[in-house]
Please model this.
Amino acid sequence: MSTKNLSAPTNPNSYVHFSTGHEDLVHDVAYDYYGRRMATVSSDQRLKIFDLNDEGEWVIADSFKAHDSSINKVIWGPPEHGQIVATCSYDRTVRIWEEQEMGSPHRWKRQFQMTSDARTAIHSIGFPPTLASTASTSTGLKLAFISADGHVHIYECREPQDLTHWIAIDVVAVLPAPPPREVEVSFCLAFCPSRWGGEQLVVGAMDTARVYRHNASGKFRPAEELPGHRGLVRDVAWAVSMGRSYHLIATACKDGHVRIFKLTAASGRGDRWIVEKVADFADHKSEVWKVAWNATGTILSSTGDDGKIRLWKAAIHGEFQLLSVVATPRSRGRDEAIIEDD
Amino acid sequence: MADSLYQQYSLLSANPAPPPQHTQSRKAVFARLAQPFIGASRPPSSHGPSAANAGGGGGGGSSVTSAPILNGPRNLRYNLNSPILALSANSEGDRIVVAGREILRILRVGYNEITEEANLRLPGEQKRHFQYDVKWGTSPQKNIIATAGTNGTICLYDVKEGKLDRMLREHGRQVHRLAFNQANGNLLLSASQDGTIKLWDLRERRSRHTFNGKAEAVRDVQFNAGNAVEFAGAFDSGAVQKWDYRKENICEKKINAHNGPAFAVDWHPDGKHLASGGRDRTVKIWDMSADSRRKPKHELTTMASVSRIAWRPSRSGKHDSTQLATCAINNDHRVQLWDFKRPYIPPRIMDVHDNPTTGLQWKDEDILWSCAKDSTLVQSDVPFAMQPINHLSHGAFDWAPNGEFTFAAQRRAKNRHHGVTGSRTTFDTDEDIAIREERRSHRSGSFKGSKPNLTQINVFDTPLDKFVPSQSAAKVSIPSLFDKEAFDFFAERYIIDLDGVAGGPKITLAQACEHNARIAFRAHKYRTAKSWKMIQLVLASEDAEAEKWQLKRPESISSTHHASGIVARRTLGLNGDNSATASGGATPKAPPSPASAPTPTPGKLHPEPLEHNLLSLPPAAFGRSLSSSTISTDGEHSGVAGSDSDTPSHSRKKARPVLTVDTSSPNFIPSPNMKSRDFAASSPPPKPPTTNGNAVTHTKRDSIDSNQNLPLFTSTTERSDPLSSQTPAGVDIAPASKVSSNSSSPVLQRQFSLVSEQTSSSYGVLESVSEGAVPHSLPPITEEAAGISQLLPPPPPIISVNPPPTLVSNIDDPRPWAVRRLAQQLIEYCTATGDVQFAGVLVLLLHKRLGFAIELVEEILDGYLNLLTRLQHFSVAALVRKLAPAESLRMAGQWNVDVDLSCGQCYRAVGGRGGGWCEKCAGSGGAECVICGEVGKGRRWTVCAVCGHGGCEGCLRGWFLGVTENGDEKGVQGEEWCPAVGCGCCCLPR
Model:
């Protein structure tokens, strides 16, 4: 073992530009489980896979047309099932892609395609965590997606060795009625990353956000609402709890606000949770589109129409504060990116 | 923002309209449909009376209009109660004919209303057939309407007379499309399923020409508005052909345009380019004058089979349009407007139909008519239609497990114009408004029928100012967000394995804490180090208490006590080689010697000797580490320490839980920190006179650092005392830096004193507390403990407000410094701040002693395991999993894991049968040993993972290790090369 000593953290902030090569807006990026690969999806209907090279730069590995319309979201499957990517699109499909062995004509093969019954655009997808309690009995791989008619669909692949067979196991209507056709819609969902306590889901549907939990029969039922949204909920993110006694959920809203909700288990039985809004920021001063928690669930990022990334972190008393603002060169009108530490 | 929009459209819909006369359900539907087709709009929340009124009627051919609003969207909808299959407008653009099954009606369309003008009677025989196309004649046949039936008959109606004029029956099968020549309305083309296109001169009885494309059925045909002798057809084979109607037998140009049938063609007004669409869901733009026939000039992908294409008329009559509208045969009921400048995101989408759209025609650059199988004719005001770009995120973001992130972001070009109060428009950008106003000011009759001007610049030949994505993407690393270096460092070096499960030595809890504290110190994580230290001390205090009990009852002394009995000592003689030793404890005044007797130090217990690491610490850090180092030893050591002492305090100390201080170093500084307080009698602590002033500094510092790790433990044991005259600082550091212990290097001294000042200012308060709280005489245990407790600042509110339900519930020890309580607070704090590594290691080490709630253990360790795996510390993760006190975690690696074996000889998978031997090779007894040549079946077998050669374990032991089968030394040195002849593999590199 080396006897290397750590120097005090003096590494400067690094900002490595790269070109995605997409011909239109990139709508989502996703790291794989290990952070060594990345998938990007764009309105140009392409899915691109990047690998990290030794210099820490992204090098494109694959690029192929994955859908017939703008692709909303991309996620990596759980690592135990291999290299799996799921995408969803305005072309009303969810597609499951699996990497094939070296030398295959197409490195990424489409293994399955799902649609909603109403044949509407799919706005978001999510893989639930592999629950610890079911690990012994089920090896299934599940996927949830939400369609523009306001339904969350849960599919399961019973034998993930063969990703070409999925069955629908649950459908939850999250709106009383599908939104009218001409209305601007927004839907998003995120699973609770905890592997204990059953599956939990937070769904943003139009201008509401609500938590859904499994009932006794294993179907999702509505639970607490996260109140206070005055516009379409654009994104939801559920923080890794890491043994905390509470959960944190962040929402991005069209009204320009980033909100953080704290869910604390109510004393007494009945699986009741107390929802408390612990942060509400309007710093973007424009629509907020994305929120994401870091790997330890302590730093929240938000992305808005102002072209800036804001990072939020809880101070010692649990109060969230702005940590830094990352601005893109163009949004600043300068040649170099600015990382403002707060 | 959005609310104002909604309000606005509630207002719009509340405008008066023709009185309702129809069923409620229809009303509800049309109340909704009569909404302007704006993406961001929202229907009235309830279908109240006003909303229903706005909806008006629906059936019976009454018109549904929105009230005339100046500058408002001119969206109109008209229900014909029968599916519509085609529409066509006259060249003035004020009348539309719609055709379907059993219907053929002429509607008058104004800006604000649609009214029915005539209902043409179909001839009896045609009533059974769908009319798949209808076309209004052009000059000089402006009063003629032609329809194409499924039976192949073309009917010509006279609009003025309102009756059928004549029927043209030459096609054997269905006629798909008709086209009048814009320059000479006497010329009519018909495209048929029978594979032919016929040219008709309406002044003649029979068709003039028949063009045979030899490419299966003809789906669409259209005259070139720019060159009236040319026309193009779309064929089922996917071909697009260009013909000159004067040359019946020569096809001028053939393009294999589509994969699958081509359904639609539309000439660009410039007369040179043609758009074609087909079942392959693409729209392609072809240069029909150039020779290049292979590749389209532009291509865009839609979601469904393209059934109709209509170029948007360009502004101010220039033929520079890059936009076209499409509709689909099925799957997609929307009308989409595309722009070749930005081929992926349609600028507008008109979601106005409930069934497939069957016909499209532009009135002018803003107004688009569409008809559908849902029986409606809709006039859409395109600049008010939904803009998909507004529903699409301009940013993307994701976190990597190591705290880096990658994002793509772009500032949205212009803020959306959310219909400011007063203005009823909902243009999305200011630019749009400007354009529209400009257009309104000099509106020209740019209806599609107008003659093209070929002298215009061709937009397809000039470099199109194509959309270039201006999102910038970057990978960002902000080290302060997550110290991956430290995580890696700790992951590999923290001691988590007390029992030597992984093959390491057994170690006591206190030694592990001590070690971990050192590790944290080396990573400059002072607060983490202090936290470890604190745990160690508290453990020591508890153990000492237990020891006291045991002293009272000597018979109860057990080996377990020995293992966990902790006496922390303060050594200052961190001499380079056995810094941690408290070595040579026998003679307090003995100079530190590298050769002093080796003692079981934590450093030695660990594979990586600590002292070497300490050596390379930078001086500043070292200075602090010197002053803070507290070395734990096991019970054996404390015995030595006790026996060697000749001071009365030592003898008493043995019975006390207070930490012994080793005086072995000549440079021993009796600095008055809390551990050495019991030394106060023998060596009075040199007290800085400015203690009280320093207290302020200390608190300030504490608050500043509150973001750092564990402010809880800011004031722990570390301190140095620069003011002590007895402290030869330079000498103190000297042994570590291999300088003679007697020499005091001025440089070092200066360095050290700098550090000392710093530390003394921050910890001055500690001294005052200890001075105040603890009398100089040896205090009883409880007071000692109280001294510790006073050192602890109150826990952060986040902890005290929310006592975790998952944490240990039965806190039997009410004292705040109880290990259980401390650990609980630490874990609370660490999980809140995301230091799951510390929490995880703590849980691993202390669970046996404290018994945390299993849920907590699972969540924390799962979090730690996840991070370890994601950051690719796989072996550490495996160890954590092995040590995990939760079965669900331990078992996880054993569930659903298949281990497949392959035969060492034939490399085939070894099945379950054959007793683990390859079925094929088992017949011959399995593989042969490379040395003795015997078959391997039934023997202990070893295989080189690299070359695959293997043999009996005994043979290979002899070969590689030089031992006999019984394990006796042969006296021969083992080989490192493969025993197989000619293999050359270095199986066991040394």
About this structure: Chain A has a mean pLDDT of 86.
